Amino acid sequence: MNNRWPAIVLAAVLCVIPPYAAQCADSKEPAKSQDDYYELLKAFVDTLDQLERNYVKDLSRRELVEAAIEGMISKLDQHSDYIPPEELDRFKRGVENEFGGVGIEVTKEPGVLTIISPLVGSPAYRAGLSAGDVITHIEGEVTKPLSLLDAVRRMKGRLGTSVELTVRHPSDDTSRTVKLTRELVRVETVMGDRRNDDGSWQFLYDTEEKIGYVRVSAFARHTAGELRKAVRKLGQDGMRGLVLDLRYNPGGLLSSAIQLSDLFISEGRIVSTEGRNTEPQAWEAHRRGTFEDFPMAVLVNRFSASASEIVAACLQDHERAVIVGERTFGKGSVQNIIELENGRSALKLTTAGYKRPSGRNIHRFPGAAESEDWGVQPNEGWEVEISESERRMLWGQRRQRDIVNKVEEAEQEDPDLPDPVLAKGLSYVKGQLALELATQDSP
Hints:
With 443 residues, this protein is α+β, with helices and mostly antiparallel strands. Helices cover 34% and strands 23% of the residues. It has 3 domains: 5-88; 98-186, PDZ domain (Pdz3 Domain), CATH 2.30.42; 190-437, 2-enoyl-CoA Hydratase, Chain A, domain 1 (Alpha-Beta Complex), CATH 3.90.226. The chain has 12 helices and 21 strands. The protein is globular, with a radius of gyration of 26 Å. Residues 12-29 and 407-412 have low confidence and may be disordered.
């Protein structure tokens, strides 16, 4: 082994010290001397050298360095993370909600790879694959021994390439083999309550009162554009009020939350961010393209976080909508994605926190009490608490209604369970419509 490599690594690392020290000098913290950095980095590199050369078991340099990075990350907040090369593609797909595949959601239990639902318009959808179908082979390989992750990896791939699936239909126990060409698959983030016969979403919830209902499950690149299309379609159908459901929405892109908020307010602050070593930023609404001539209710719960809290707080502070449900999660921090190794790996680093238009805090810091100011609280009188058993049942009911091409069941489905949060949101919109009508009728 070349024992000079620790010194070479140390020399390379030291090249970054002067600009970093200069940055620290501009911050509120005192600058650390170059000698301090040298001694600390020398200790790190010496430790790396000793572990690699003398530890009882052989360890790779990457394994040791990644462990060191993860150790540093463990000192930060829970939203900062290191994304190694083997996880980077999956991370990007999660952020963008897009990937190259055949367009099916699958599960594996017990040992059976089963389709939960095809995505509307996807290769699997066009080929007639249906919920409940069992995938027995992928490219001739039996799926039973494969893990769910391995099976999904085999079905995903480069755009334009093909994959062969053997599918068994449980209803008649027949099998067929289909060859599907992988396409860019975009996961739906804007949905309604029920599907039409063709698998598209029905966004007009109450056809008599003309009240629309739209769910936003995440904030991806195309979410605001998809919501704009849905609201325009509702307008063509005569919509008079809207319920926007952000329950179970974990967030996503800050830019998407800003664009979505801008759809419903015509002026004023949407959100602002502020960090230790980042310039304060603020985003303002634009009048053009605003939907503002109808009452709105926004549904949230304890799982609504980050970008969904930006939208809820913005519409609440501008009195554009009433917030209905539970107090939100309280994630008011902004993460930047910083490329490492020329793009082979990445660092997701918390660099700033955001404030709602009123300037109030959203982030729930460790140890924060219930009495402190964090998250987004429902408007007074519009809080709705539900039990965990109710939550589980309603979630299961929602999953069933979201399925495309459901397997026919011999028995009639149970009647829908009432959704108290949705009912409360609808009651607000109906009340506002009744108030508007009474105002118009008064002399």
